[in-house]
Amino acid sequence: MRSLLLAAALCAVSAQLHAQSQHLSLSVSDFRLDKFLEMVSAQTKANFILGDGIPDLRVSFSFKNAPLSQVLDQLRQAKGLSSQKLAPGLYLIVSKPAALDGAKALDGIAAFDTAVTVNARQAPLQGLFDQVGEQTKTRFTVDEGLKDIRATLLLRRVTARQALQALCAIKGLAVHISGSGSFIVRPAAPASTAPAETQTPDAQGLYAGYRGASLPVSGNQLAFLKKGDHVDVMVTFEARMADQHKEKVTATILQNVLVVDLLKPAKNEDRGTVQLLLNPNEAQYAALSDAEGTIHIARRAPGDAAMPPMEMASFRKLFR
Question: Cα–Cα distances in Å, from 297 out to 58, 221, 230, 286, 307?
Fold first, then answer.
């Protein structure tokens, strides 16, 4: 499993930016990379996240009044490491660039503005999320399939949101609001994948390896829909926020999925059924969303295949 290191950081962005403008002076010989970056962090207040095997690398460097950018450049030249900026003052150090799309975690949740301190080495995910939960007065439940994943986090005064975003990005996780007032940590749902052009559907329009998932929706959403259209799927449900206030939120769970069939009701105010072509994992998320809330669909323009990250919608965000 990947090993992570988050070195000490200041909470306020303005303080981070100011600290990173400072130069640093240090000299090490045959030094562990994680210990070296802790020394860098002590002077610059930058955060570092290390990928697989990187903490154990040995380095020898000497800097005098050098900017942080020079340190990162030396890591690239000497060890072939890539540095990616995740947020102000937060850098990912890996052997090759990592895909970080979808790293946003629960924007708009006030509890995650809290600065947290977490010091754990090779700790299970549940323990790490528990530490964040204790300091933000929230509760996390890690999916059973993630129990064996471990990580090393050394954080001091980092916002909980920043820590969660980094952890989700590196480990491929997603944090979901639970109706019980807690949060559930699951593997991130993959972007919808279309069947290969060489595949041939059966008489019902289904492809091998895919499922025809039927979902109930209001008739007015089906009025202008037809077989062969592509849609986005949303779910609206009631969530208890960190301040214990209940409110309805809407989340986009699937994007650009194919309509293979539909059953329109006689009247638009009645409910009908839409059947979507989903891979097995997507079908599970669709079933869960149908059980937990109300499904909505939005028809896409022909040829529109963009799948941008979608922020969860709430009236609190609309009127803040």
Answer: 53, 7, 10, 12, 15
User: Six-digit token pair at 264?
Assistant: 């329109």
CA separation for the pair 238, 241 (Å, rounded): 9
The CATH number of the structural domain formed by 211-319 is: 2.40.10
Amino acid at 133: G
The CATH fold of domain 1-188: Phage tail protein beta-alpha-beta fold (3.55.50)
The predicted-structure confidence for 179-202, as pLDDT tens digits, reads as follows 555 788 877 765 555 665 557 777
**Chain centre to alpha carbon of residue 319:** 25
Q: Which residues pair with 246 in a beta bridge?
A: 240
CA 154 to each of CA 41, 119, 213: distance values in angstroms, whole numbers, following the listed order: 11, 5, 43
* Fold match between domain 1-188 and domain 211-319: no
Query: For the chain, what are the domain ranges?
Result: 1-188, 211-319
Say which residue, 295 or 163, is predicted with more confidence.
295
In a 13 Å sphere around the CA of 72, the CA atoms on its Cβ side amount to: 22
Q: Name the band, by pLDDT with cuts 50, 70 and 90, for residue 22.
A: low
What residues contact 178, with CB distance under 8 A and at least 6 apart? 141, 184, 239
